[in-house]
## 1
Amino acid sequence: MENKRTCLYDKHVALGALIQPFGGFDMPIQYTSIIDEHNAVRQHCGVFDVSHMGEVRVTGPDAERYVNHIFTNNVTNAPIGKIYYGMMCYPDGGTVDDLLVYKMGEQDFFIVINAANIDKDVAWMTDHTEGMNVNIAHQSDYYGQLAVQGPESAQVMEEILGLPCSELVFYTAKTIDVPGEQLIVSRTGYTGEDGFEIYGSHDYIRSAWDKLMASGRCKPCGLGCRDTLRFEVGLPLYGDELSADISPVMAGLSMFCKLDKPEFIGREALIDQKTNGVSRRLRGIELQGHAVPRHGYPVLKDGREVGVVTTGYRLLSVDKSCAVALVDASIKLGDTVEVQIRKKTFPGTIVKKKFYEKHYHK
């Protein structure tokens, strides 16, 4: 089956982007270099095409009850404009997907899901509406999405795109009327920096991209630096740090699972994991030297395999080799381990999963 393309695909090709498959789409991985693009976001402003993400609208009299049923976080009596991060779980506690839920109105929730999981997630959502008066509208084909990220993002949004947004606080959203449509603009991102995400029609997203590129005030950024940026600040990637086999508790994301909420799919399993412990957990590893750990590399302790790397990089913002690994729960902070890279092993120390401080707008 051919990969899908976003509404900006031709513009990426025209800019000479390296295009590779990701989540069922042909996506730009880099334009100039991952290092240049990474540093642009950390220091100035970078723009990502994230139109591959999926969008689902949940409306109706039981919308709030339904979202609470499928979602680990608690949206009860949420203020309009508030955004929540959390997971959808299987009954055994494994992760269907991690997602953002936007409260757009009293009976109106806008849900953003990962590209590779769109079909699976929409089917999961649709299959769990029994007894609920809700409408599930799959809107992924309508929306394009831009992420404008970095310390200069608010000025770029207002001065280049004319979108008033500096009053938004972190993890809130609003609608903005532009000719012919209504945008959703949120102060969110996946980089650890201040930033915004814009959801609009394909025509709007194309024209906004052109304005941003013509301004000279932001760099086009590919999924390569999106991964290095999110990894440095400890943000998980579905398929690596979350999966059907990796629960939110194993991933260290229990704070997004409101276990005191009356019921949601997977709640009992997550309570059991919190109460009785899990066999494996995600941990950070800081390696000595310059060797670069990669996904799938074994982690050893005293010569015995105790886990596997989920993501690893030579970090660009702090010049260290680091990894996140799914390891036996007996492995604790401060322990020394080794990562096997091809035929050699390299020593490392178990540390927290966040290797670089986030710089969100508070």
## 2
Amino acid sequence: MINVIKTALDGVLIIEPAVHGDHRGYFMETYSRADFEAAGITNDFVQDNESMTMKKGTIRGIHFQLDPMAQAKTVRVVSGALRDIAVDLRKGSPTYKKWIAVELSAQNKRMLYVPRGFGHGFETLSDNVVFCYKVDNPYSRENDRSVCWHDESIGVEWLTKEPILSDKDRNAPLLKDSDCNFIFRG
């Protein structure tokens, strides 16, 4: 059984799995189709991904894939801690360019569900962060996009002031200069 917490962005959900622990350690279900469907998450997840970020103070994002290859994601941390960011990139949405931040860690075992139409990023709060996520569309190089992590029109308040960045993130365009094609459908 999972506990689902709504956020300020409609459709973005914090998921708290039931964790069963004793003197040996713990057990938890990280995905149950029945539990997710009961929470309104009906995506057909097709791919699992894992990344490792070595240094605290690294920012990855804000990433997304263009329609029709947009991805819904369920993300979680296996080792370490990070601050996960979801940004509404759907033109016409009442929360367009609004964002939320949620701490995900190996300790709190929280997950975040990010629907299609949202950008996603994170900043590491510890070294050696292992990050896992399920997606409902496979990776598509030709549809892979980013917008500038410090785009003032979005205004994410990052904790990290001098981040470690990839070339992709360092050179990402502002949202107004991107070809982001997400439209709010009500």
